[in-house]
Each structure stands twice: as structure tokens, then as C-alpha cells.
Amino acid sequence: MKAFDILIIGGGIAGIRVAALLRKKLASLSIGIIEPSGNHFYQPAFTLVGLGLADRSTAQKSMAEVVPKGCNWIRDAVTEIDPQHCMVSLSSGERIAYRALIIAAGLALDVESTPGLAESLSDRQNPVCSLYDSNTHDKCRTLLQNFAGGTMLFTLPSTPVKCPSTALKSVFLIDDLLRQSGMREVCKLVYITPFSFLSNIESAHFVAATNAHKKGIEIILEHELNQLDTRNYVAIFAATPQQTGAAHLKNLKYDFALITPRMKAPSFLIHSGLIQSSGAMSGWLNVDPQTLQHPQFANIFGLGDCAALPTLKTASAGLAQAEIVAANLASLFKKGVQIQLPATYDGYSACPLFTEFGKAIPGAVTYQGVATGSFWQNPNQPSRREWFVHRYLIPTLYWNFTIKGIV
């Protein structure tokens, strides 16, 4: 049976970053990374790749290229965590022991909870796609290239999702593409959200609402996708509880639909006994919001999309959390479990909103709700500088420095 000083579940952005940092801080300790995928994805680029505005190579590399030197990559999937005995079981039947466990397992797309969605995504002829599934990016690009006019739907679910501005930034970018091609007048763009706002960042909501009005994009609030009629291309929406006095269902026929599916924690995590059992983040990995340590098991830390944290689920959040986990776990190994952990997470996360091709706002928050901009840019003013930062600078830094633990 294999055993590691530090075992990391997940080889995504948060998992690889924390591995690289720990490799530098605790070079003498053994580190294992469990990740079933052969590819590592930079998911902030999925929007641009799926819309045909960036090459696939900007969003992925082979896992072998990014695993930090000195770390052991176990290409397998976790089926069970036994925190009482410090043991993880894999789909191959193998069991791995650990001294400390870091859970950076990401999340799962819950497409099966929306009838008709899985079938629509897999059918190349059905005009439904999702930017969250890299397997449908080619389909999305083809649908957009061949689009001849009609109604385009963009949806957001009520569950926590990674980078919740994805659908909104997509409708703004597609609006620009249609104008450039002279197709905008024969297209109706509709954005549907289960919430009473476009962004839970007040300033970003104002920017988005103003932009949507200027572009002639229809906004439907307080409705969530309930089902897809795959034969007639009709999306059926249910009014959310806050929509009082409204018809329960709203049917919208579509010629193109960009769906943000519901999302949930990975199934092995849901059944691990490590999740939060109540509250708004019920069903996600229970960790202290400042130290990112599990409240019951001192040798378990969590970060990234799977964590029950009251902030946006984004790559920038995962990277910020990796710094905290690495510092606190290094301190535990050096000083013992009775110490007060030295690093605290302030809830920083950024989900940039592209308001048009070439302009963006940062969409950055902390637990205190403080929005900040890159390079001291006004966070409420769409700018070309902010676009450049998120489109070019951050991805370049990520692939060349960040995942190597350099910056």
C-alpha cells in the first residue's frame, strides 16, 4: 500500500498550485497527487475557446507537463475517503495512506438533474452547448459559425457554479460577434437567471444591466431552466420562489442555447462525512473560511471549487487559497497540530466580466465585498487594460510561473 506525507486530491488549478508551493516549503516530504484526467485545464480560458476567440492550446496542457517535479501523479479516481484512518480508496481498488490530506477536487456538472440537457449536449444536431464542458467547445464554435438567425438563450442555475459571470460575459461577446458579422438584427438574445440581480456584486450588476439595455439584450429574472424539450427545441423555465404571483412555467423556443448546468460536489465527497450539512453551502466540503482547515480533522484542508466558502468559485480564488493552505500545512508539519495557524484567507476571488470584445471589469471581491481593479483601474469602468490583463497577461503568467510555484 502506498503512503504519502501529503496527499492531494485533484490536479486542477488549486491542486497543482498548492503542490508546487509545498514542494518548495517541504522538499523532504513525499507528495502524491490523485488526478484521473490526462489533461490539465486553465478553465478561465474556456469562454474564449468555446466562442472561437482563443485557441484550445491556451486552455490546456498534458498533466505530465504540469505536475511539479518531485511529486507523484496517481492517475486514478477517488471513490472513498476514510478520514478516521487517514486512507483514500481509488477506483482501481488501491488504497493510499496519508499524514495530511488536501482536497482540491473541483466540482461536478450535474447535467442529469435537468431533463433533456445531457441528451442535447451530446447530440451534434441539437443547438445546445455549454462552455463548462470542454467536449462541447467544438460544437459551440460550429453552432456559432453556422448560425443563421433566431433566438439565443443564455442560462444560469441557482446552485453555486464556477465563475458565475460566464453566461453573462458570453452573451455580451456574442452580441459583439453578431454585430461584426451583420447578423445582430435577425437575432434575439435572452439571458435568464434565477436571481433578482445580474451579479451579487452591486457595482457589477449596474454595469451589466446598463450594458444589456444598451445592447438590446432581453433579461428574464427569477427563472431557472427546468427542462429541455429536445424534439421541439423548447426550454422550460420554472419561476424561482422569490417570483411571487408569476406563472409557474415559462416556455421559450430556441435556435441556440448556451447552458450553465447545475453543479455539485463530487459524489465521493458528498458521501465522505466531510461536507457541510446545513446552510447555503450545504453539500460542499466543510472548511474553516479563514484557515481552510477541516473543523473536525486537523490534518485535512480544502480549497478550490469543492470548498464550502462564501465567495465566488473561481480560479483566482483557488490560487489565493493555495497560498493559505501551503503556509498553514507547512506550519503544522514544522510545529505540530497545537499551534495557531499563521495564514488566513480573506475571501478574495475575481470573476471578470467581459462587457464587449476588448473591454472588461475585474469582478473582484473579498468576504467584505470589497471590489478591486487590476493595476488600480476603476473596478466599475470597463477598460481595455482589464481585458488585456485577463485575456493575455494572467494566462501567460499562469502557464509559465504560477503553476510552477514561482509567483
Structure, explained:
- By secondary structure, this protein is an alpha/beta fold.
- It has two domains: 2-107 and 265-341, FAD/NAD(P)-binding domain; 111-262, FAD/NAD(P)-binding domain.
- It is built from ten helices and 23 strands.
- The chain has helices at residues 13-25, 46-50, 63-66, 117-122, 137-145, 166-181, 202-215, 267-270, 315-335, 384-400; strands at 2-9, 31-34, 39-41, 60-62, 72-74, 78-82, 87-90, 95-103, 108-109, 128-129, 150-155, 187-192, 218-220, 223-229, 234-239, 249-253, 256-258, 263-264, 300-302, 349-350, 353-356, 359-361, 364-365.
- Helix 6 (166-181) links the parallel strand 11 and strand 12.
- Helix 1 runs parallel beside helix 9 (315-335).
- The mean pLDDT is 94.
The oligomeric state is single chain
Q: Number of DSSP strands?
A: 23
* CATH hierarchy class name of the largest domain: Alpha Beta
CATH topology (level 3) name of the largest domain: FAD/NAD(P)-binding domain
Shape: globular
Report the CATH superfamily of the largest domain: FAD/NAD(P)-binding domain
Low-confidence stretches: none
Give the CA-CA distance, first to last residue.
35 Å
What class would the helix/strand composition place it in?
alpha/beta
Number of domains: 2
Mean pLDDT comes to 94
Biggest sheet overview: 7 strands, mixed
| CATH architecture classification of the largest domain | 3-Layer(bba) Sandwich
Q: What is the helix content?
A: 25-40%
